[in-house]
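User: Can you help me understand a structure? I only have the sequence.
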Amino acid sequence: MAEYQRGSMDIRTQEKTFDGFIRLVSWGAVIAIGILIFMALVDG
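Assistant: Let's start by predicting it. Here is the structure, written out as tokens:
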């Protein structure tokens, strides 16, 4: 088994996946808050 060297692994794919996840969660939160505000205004 090869010896592990810290910092030698290519993590670009993981970083892209994480960035996409954060973007998705952020947009989801914005949409959910927008829907809640809309519902509060319509219910009046």
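Now, to help you interpret it: The chain has a mean pLDDT of 92. Helices lie at 12-43. Let me know which part you'd like to focus on.
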